[in-house]
Amino acid sequence: MPVQAGDVVVTKQGLNAFPGSDLEQQLLKRGIVTVAIGGFLRDCCVEATARAAYDKGFNVVTLLDCMGPDANDLNDQPINAGPTAANARSTFTLFSNPMPFNSFLSRVEEGTGKKLWTRDVGIDATRCLSPGRHGEVPTAAKTALVMIEFQNNFCNERGALNHVLKDEILRTKVVENAARACEAARAKGIKVFHISINFSADMSDNPQRGLGQLGNAARSVVFVRGSFGAEFYQEMAPLDGDVVISGKRCLDSFPGSEFEEELLARGIEHIAFGGFLANCCVEASARTAYEKGFKVFTLTDCVCTLTQDMLMRCLGVQGNPGTYSLFSQPMFSSDFLASVK
């Protein structure tokens, strides 16, 4: 893959190609609207970059035949329900339009003066992110338990999206587990954060009304501010002393919200995530927290998504790690809470 004359070379610092690099600047100054992404590794740097591009408002295409394997595939230990190409594709539809390269090329409109730009994004191991907040032992004062989108649309039987999740909610016992984790965290002095997603009734503040999971939300007109579906589910309602983050409009909880400000104001160094959907907003938020230098934990009994196979791609199966292990320490909520001093 030699760089050709006219190509743009970007050197990145982390899994996601945007933080600390000039990728976004290079895209914007050329008026780029659509970004097609391939490379290594599919579930690591490619997925992290595609998720970030989506939340930044780009039209994202993921090139299915131009990606290296998942990190887990490098172990040469095939598994049935782990990070396979099929499950990767189902996850990629949440934030991109997955297709082979030739299909993408056939859809590119050839107009006068238009050019298909190529960007070679490499990583320089001598450069790194912030030193991180990775103390060996989490302390309660510097730890946050973050619960994402325990809202009526997902959890309540009257919710607009409950019908596609109710079997998995029952199977995983995610609500009961998360409520128990919140109670135990409060008792231990750990700050509990609740993050909701919500939009205006006309969806004008939805950054991706035509693509992926946010596009589905716009078409269905769900999570409208002030509506029943956007309210927190009663069993997971915030209590006095909890922190409520209501500015989330993207899959990732950080962009455009007050989330990072609230974390930094409290000196938080360690973050444990739970919520919905495991492979969508939870994963997007945990990936970004990792890139920002937080020590990240993903609570395997406090997350849920549409199918068991999708969940196993995150968590891993039969001793093989899932995507969560690329940017966090996956563990049961009880084990995590026991580790906090």
Word description of this protein:
It is built from 12 helices and 13 strands. The radius of gyration is 20 Å and the shape is globular. It folds into 2 domains: 8-112, 3-Layer(aba) Sandwich (Rossmann fold), CATH 3.40.50; 140-339, Rossmann fold. With 341 residues, the chain is of the alpha/beta class. Helix content is 31%, strand content 21%. It has a 6-stranded parallel β-sheet with strand order 8-7-6-9-10-13, with helices on both faces. A 3-stranded parallel β-sheet has the order 2-3-4, sandwiched between helices.
Outline of this structure?
The protein is α/β, with parallel strands linked by helices and 341 residues long.
Task: Set out the fold topology.
Blueprint: E1 8-12, H1 23-29, E2 34-39, H2 42-55, E3 59-67, H3 85-92, E4 97-99, H4 101-107, E5 119-123, E6 143-148, H5 152-155, H6 166-172, H7 174-187, E7 191-197, H8 212-220, E8 243-248, H9 259-265, E9 270-276, H10 278-291, E10 295-304, H11 308-315, E11 316-317, E12 320-321, E13 329-331, H12 333-339
Parallel strand pairs: 1-5, 2-3, 3-4, 6-7, 6-9, 7-8, 9-10, 10-13
Antiparallel strand pairs: 11-12
Give the strand line-up of the largest sheet. Answer: 8-7-6-9-10-13
The quaternary state of the protein chains shown equals single chain
Low-confidence stretches: 75-83, 111-117, 124-131
DSSP helix fraction: 25-40%
Task: Summarize the biggest pleated sheet.
Answer: 6 strands, parallel
CATH topology of the largest domain: Rossmann fold
Rounded mean pLDDT is 88
The figure for the number of domains is: 2
% residues in beta strands: 15-25%
Q: Give the overall silhouette.
A: globular
CATH class of the largest domain: Alpha Beta
